[in-house]
Amino acid sequence: MTVPSLLAVFAHPDDESLSAGGVLARHAAAGARTAVVTATWAADTLRAAELAEALHILGAGRPRMLGYADARVPHSAPGRMRFCDAPLDEAVRRLVKHIREFRPDVMVTHDAYGGLPGHRDHVHTHRVTMLAARAAGLEQFYPDVGAPWEPHAVYLATHPHSAVPALKDVIGARRAVYSVPDGQVTATVDVSPWIRQKIAAVLAHRSEVERGALPGVIAGLPPDARRKLFATEWFIRHDSTTAVASQTELTD
Questions:
Q1: 239-250: per-residue pLDDT in tens?
Q2: Taking the complete model, does pTM exceed 0.90, yes or no?
């Protein structure tokens, strides 16, 4: 069966590799079209260059940047509005343009909590993506940014409660984490065949490694620990109004 084309939408450079790097690499290896839209950071910054390297490793093409500023890092997009402060209609419109240009079968983004850290940019990316995925298929909305296209499903990158204890041992028990009941997870993907690519993509975000963020923590782990903790990716599927299950399974 043909592996569906995949458009991922995440808040910051490195989110794509941490949350869905294995799935992106898997789909690309199977010959599917893949791409990533990143909501924050400007195209001429160091982190955008790191993102380009990570996407090359994952086979996900060139960076697609919405160009807003990170909520916590003003120099991420000098002179530009923070993503969380941008008019909702404007942000949705920009993302609809990418959806209609790429025409993905499925999309991937943050869950409603914004993943484990619950970062406000992650949560806002979830909101914008869910609205844009629906609006992209409606001809009345944004007719000047392309012909209507609705993906068959949106998969929300998440973590089940059962995975949290082992992860907290690594990321630190002092940090708040957000997860969902195991029964809410609809796709559990073993990405161990692509773990080397996933980890290489994570480590391509060298500025995050150097400042001791999660990529830096991962850099310090032995290979067996990396595989144990990051060789599974979890998702919650949301079908569109025109979903065709046989064409849209993330785990085909």
A1: 987 655 445 567
A2: yes
